[in-house]
Amino acid sequence: MHVRDISAIGLSLLVSLTLACGRPTTTSPSRSVSAPGSAGSLAPLANGTAAASLGDAVTLKVTAPQAQSPVNDFVVLTSPVTLVASNATGKFAALPILQYRFLVFGPTGTLFQESGPLSAPSFVLTAPLDFDARYTWRARAELGDAVGPWSTAASFIAQTGGYIIGSEIYDPLMNGKTVGEIHGPVTFIPGVGVRMDSRGSYIQYTLPQTLGEGEYSALVTNLAVISNTEDPKDRILTMREGDAAINDNEYRMSVDKRGNGAIAWRFLTGPGPYIETIGRERRIYPFHESLTYFVQATWRQGFFNVMFREGGVTGNTVYDFGKTYRGNYAPFPHRVFIGSPYAPGERGGVSTVQDMIVRQVWVSSRPRPSFANQ
């Protein structure tokens, strides 16, 4: 008999031993664990097959995987979420052909998502998560129809609806809350965004660290042409240093939608010369209330640019214009606004685009992530 044939027989015997030792007997009851907050039985999978259960009998002599991340109610700020566990090992033989299954339970303890058999102990969640919700998960190893023990439960908290960390802001605004400060009347529309209910309404964010180069972008609806002239000269996105009046602020950035649909902007980097749209550079666009617009301002490597896309982040570009600037953008504290701030006595007046609806605010030196594009 060839050496290769002997090796194959040996491996087969070891696998058989591992499976046989894992078969339940009348003197050794099978392991049964209830799903957190549930009665134990789980819903069928989408393909019609039965879902795995935490009460399945252990028929494979392997160790349970150990949950690695996210665990201990870690607050997950980004999407998609990837669950990671350690490898299981055979108790009687090394089994390089192990596969893994994950069960994820929602806030009420019911099955939220189940993976199929995976070649590695890692699972990327594809179903959308609820904000401020706690999820638990487990993993186990499998070999054909034989199954190992489940890991102990791990848990995480889905993103809280937004965050301000360092020089980065993410605020989805579709879940009835904001990480910013609300000024004036606004209305949260579930799944849609926040509406600025007056020209004096705005939301303020304060960055702990100045963002010297980066982008400020958002998805905006309910923009419209409302006059035959540029009046009113209202603003969609603004930034400034501290609390000095926006019209006289040495680090003002503003992106306007004017009454006739003209797009205009201004960008200052301290005392001295600044850049803005002049004359025909304020291009007129026929805004429509029912359309979603991706509005983005970027300032990087001495060039400031404003872009509008009709239909969202991947939509048709309808405006894309910028200029070089001198100096450094260095406001401190760095304030960011939806709309435009105003206090009585300041030069100018209230100037937020009334009734615009904003969602998915992103301010960062990093590129806009896919989870902010919905």
SSE layout and pairing:
Elements: H1 3-21, E1 67-69, E2 74-75, E3 82-85, E4 99-105, E5 111-114, E6 122-124, E7 134-143, E8 146-147, E9 154-157, E10 163-165, E11 168-171, E12 181-183, E13 186-189, E14 193-196, E15 202-207, E16 214-221, E17 233-241, E18 253-258, E19 262-267, E20 275-276, E21 283-284, E22 293-300, E23 303-310, E24 316-324, E25 334-339, E26 357-364
Quick description:
This protein is mostly beta strands and 374 residues long. The protein has one helix and 26 strands.
User: Could you please say which CATH topology of the largest domain applies here?
Assistant: Jelly Rolls
Calculate the terminal CA-CA distance, rounded to whole Å. 63 Å
Q: What fraction of the residues are assigned to beta strands by DSSP?
A: 35-45%
Please tell me the CATH architecture of the largest domain by its name.
Sandwich
